[in-house]
Amino acid sequence: MKRFVPLGLLMALGCGPASAVTPTPAAPLTEVGRAPEDTAVKQDLRLLPPEVYVRSYLAFFGGLAPSKVEDTVRGKDGGALFDSWNDYLAALGFPDYKLDLPRATETNAIMVATFERLGVALCDRALEHDWKATPTTPSTLRVVFAFEPKHDMVLTEFAQRFDVMHRTFLSYPAALAPGRTEDFYGLYEDIRRKHLAQKKKSRFSPEEAGWAAVCYGLVRHPEFYLY
């Protein structure tokens, strides 16, 4: 036989007075000991995959295809600044499975020299594109030097422009790297003064040569290749 609980009884139980819970202060935590913070480096810096470097390089030229970048970087100088991507891929650490050449996991002298050559080519061609093109390239379409050059800059004027390039290459404000702006300002002034003193002029003005040297320093910076 089935037994049923009256509905009224269930409603009376559900609507009964709520029990009150009195809050009590939490007991203080007892210190049982202290341990020094371990700030030792757990993993050394690693080399970025070469694919990341090449993609960044292409992005600095406005996202062009590799073949188009090759033509742009060679310009009228032929192989003086840039040969071809095929000449650099193995040196940058790419594997070559036809020759059973594994992927490079550490830097070497040839790789550093290749970074150097590609960086100089990037900076020179970017400066020509951003500042010396005819007609003048609008600031919104400049790839590296996205600011206006100025003669006889003081440190604060240099810092505003340097921060633009620092964010482009290293992705964070230059103010977060103590002393770096001052060091690069010294580099800029040194190159500018040497170009002013030269009797044989280059295709860059003293100010342009100074900014190109700043670009060389940033594109060679270890933070650009390592993480």
Describe, in plain words, how this protein is organized in 3D.
The protein has 227 residues and is an all-alpha fold. The chain has one domain (50-225). The protein is 47% helix and 0% strand. The longest helix is centred in the middle third of the chain and has 23 residues, at 109-131. It is extended. It starts with 6 loop residues before the first helix and ends with a helix. 17% of the residues are buried.
Tertiary shape: extended
Number of strands: 0
Count of discrete domains:
1
Structural class: mainly alpha
Features:
mainly alpha; 227 residues; 9 helices; single chain; extended; 0% strand
Draw up the topology in text.
Layout: H1 7-14, H2 50-60, H3 66-74, H4 85-88, H5 109-131, H6 155-170, H7 180-197, H8 206-219, H9 222-225
Helix pairs in contact: 5-8, 6-7, 6-8, 7-8
Brief write-up:
By secondary structure, the protein is an all-alpha fold.
